[in-house]
Fold this sequence. Notes:
By secondary structure, the protein is mostly helical. It has a domain at 23-72. Helices cover 44% and strands 0% of the residues.
Amino acid sequence: MPDCPPSAPPEPSRRQIVVIPFALAQRLADHAIARAKSAEDLLKAVDALKAKLTPDQLNKVVELEARFRARFAHGPRPDFAPPSPDRGDKPGAPAPNSTDDAPPRSRE
């Protein structure tokens, strides 16, 4: 048999995932640090702008922010909100105990 060179390890495919301990936590922390740096830059820019605006312009900013909050404030989603008074069990209502109270069964 002819001498064959030792086989090289297979090249990792692009789809192969390398698992590194705490990689997710590291990525989350790195992203949080980057967002914090961006937030600091934003605060510096806001402070610089505030110093240059007139009182009338600052009042206009307050009005615009109020409109923005009113338009985009949706509150909790229905899945997480408590049931409205016209839905759900009523306080003091008896528990269902007969077949009349059970929902109809589907026919399959």
